[in-house]
Amino acid sequence: MQCPLCKSRDTGKIGSNQYYCWQCLMEFKASSQQTGKMYFVEEDGSLVPVSFKEEA
Ligand SMILES: [Zn+2]
Hints:
single chain; about 55 residues; mainly beta; five-stranded antiparallel sheet; 1 helix; about 5% helix; globular; binds zinc ion
């Protein structure tokens, strides 16, 4: 799975529909390319949504 943000293929699958980018150090889903949302992983494991698409 290609990272929707940095386009890197240095990613790993961590769930049925979840992936992790080792370049961005963020989680994303297969739908992230459409939704424009990725997830920063806090130290306690909680996910913080990060929007990377600029609003048109
Ligand atoms: Zn990335």
